[in-house]
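Supplementary Methods S3. Complex input for the zinc ion-bound model.
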Amino acid sequence: MNHVFQVALPLPLLQHFDYLPPSGWQGPPPPVGARVRVPFGPRQLVGVICGHRSASGPIAKLRQAHAVLDQGSLFSEELWHSLHWAARYWQHPLGEVLAAALPAAVRDAGDAAAARGDFALRSLASGDPRLRVDSAPWQLLQSLQSGARSWASVRAQFPNAATALRRLEQLQVVERVVLDASPRLARIQGPPLNSDQQVAVAAVLAALGRFGALLLEGVTGSGKTEVYLGAIEPVLARGGQALVLVPEIGLTPQLLSRFRERLAAPVLTLHSALADGERARVWQRVRRGEPLVLVGTRSAVFAPFARLELIVIDEEHDASFKQHEGFRYHARDLALVRAKRLEIPVVMGSATPALESLHNAATGRYLRLLLPERAGFAKPPAVALIDLRRQRLREGLTELVTTAIGEHLARGEQVLVFRNRRGFAPVLQCRDCGWHAECDRCDRPYTYHRKRERLVCHLCARERPAPRHCPVCGETTTPLGIGTERLEEVLGQRFAGVPVVRVDRDSTRTVGSFERLLAQAQSGAPCILVGTQMLAKGHDLPNITLAVIVDADQGLYGMDFRAGERMAQLIVQVAGRAGRGHKNGRVLIQTHYPEHPTFSHLLTGGYRNFADHELVLRQALLFPPFSAMALLRAEAMEEAPLHAFFAAARLHLPTDTTLQCIGPMPASQPRRAGAHRVQLILQCAERRTLQAALSGLVPTLYAMPESKRVRWSLDVDPQSLD
Ligand code: ADP
Ligand code: ZN
Ligand code: ZN
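Predicted complex, serialized as structure tokens:
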């Protein structure tokens, strides 16, 4: 009989791979969840052991693993099961799912403990009857009674400290903690909570120690962050850990500094901009169970907490919680699964909850907590629609809007101008012959960037110089339409002397530039902020009293069933930036369709009213959350392989009449970077039926020859039908 390791490798392949133990290997088999280094073709890969078997048959074909890298599992039992669930639910190879949960330094390199810094020991008991008085472990434990001590000092005092420590850890009377070297700021007291906030905090605290999903629905500026802080504080005080998921770290400098000012424990961050070493250190500290708060973007949901007691998801509706490529998981859904196993509560906060979440609240799966009013003195802003059909536009702005901007600036206040389009103009055209500059790999107009005199394709990122003259007739070219760069220019001319701050991906490319731009606005001096949705998220700038939405029509008639929801969320979030201080706020929305129901629902009854109507519509059309959806996408340079791929795929779908197949049809962006893009929507009222169909389909997709000639992907619960 031979022992065989079953290994999940980080490859886009469904199966596990069998390896023989390394040569000279003895002793107990390494547990599942430990890493092994193995040969794979000419390469070496690090994989994770996910099972063992004994082979009695011929094993000559099996290769030997090079090395077992860990003594124990890198995953807690809970995380291990949650990741298996994720692989099944999002129909993704386990090896890649496990790899996604490990920091790169741990994933590829040798030593998981390499990231271990100095740690300290803390006693959990004053003694233990199993310890002989005056033995080395007993002495070590006594030396910890006056407080935690660093490992370095313990080792200097006790010659056989390592053995003594092992014994104490076995008895579970000491624990390792990280001594946080960074100086603690003096803690700042928060405002006294208002009664709605008190009720919300009490509800979260009452839910500690068991699973619960709490939807904190609070209008913008209602003080949701204070509720998070109020719930996290007691968790830290009793030695627990908290996870706070946020859409984008770069966009939440204020949230971080508020957490750091107020909490008496380390506030760590985990996000894509961290260096590998730093990431691994955070991973280790979280794993050791040190009381801390981890604030991170979606991938922080994989962190290996040892003592997680609370999860907060801020702006839970945000689309960035869904990964849009590779392993297409949703951090909110995975957080809920982990919380259920860990028996801890999840608080999901938003002024504009996802319709799925509202539906879950309506059906009793989530507990709804309300913060219906702005905290402190702030009042809700007054919102008005401006009908573009009856107005003359100058550079995209009506006279009414320009006048209003002038008034607010003259009163010493700040103005936010929102336009979801970066660059100078969406099109560069010739007025004479009708030619316009188009990316021929995407069949889409180039965006004109005037500062750099470039044409940029926002789909495939291709660039070229912007022509001064029409290549067809030689006339001078003209920019058509309005981007943030153009608004910056016209507002700067019109309101000379007032700073215009532009915030979009172009103006915030360098590290820290977003904070610098925001700091300028935080000073409170009159200024105009121009920007994309980067400006819409969560910032607290009390002197903004006017928010202008330059063009609210994008998305009103989109082909994506979520377009209306996204538009409504954006409008409410942008409006939420206005009037957060003592002064009243005002919102002006420019549109060609003022009679559109999205507006009337929003304006008469707020987001909640909009959402109620939209949910009725979704139910009638059997769209999510009233059905489960998956999207099979494929792209290829030629069309023929795409037809072959979808024809073959359809053969492997059950002919269950409750499973609806819509398509194959061209994607809403039918071409990108030269490739044709086709998609098939699979939809079913019963999630279980859809999942069963997918579980049958996916192995075939990996195996069938038609798959080799296209780039395909399967997206379970797609957030966008692009
Ligand atoms: P949200 O996250 O809901 O948008 P914040 O937590 O950022 O709201 O709070 C908005 C503003 O109101 C912040 O300046 C905050 O300091 C203030 N605030 C929150 N709660 C209170 C309160 N109970 N009393 C006074 N001010 C408060
Ligand atoms: Zn021309
Ligand atoms: Zn392109």
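The chain is about 30% helix and 25% strand. Residues 597-621 form the longest helix (25 residues).
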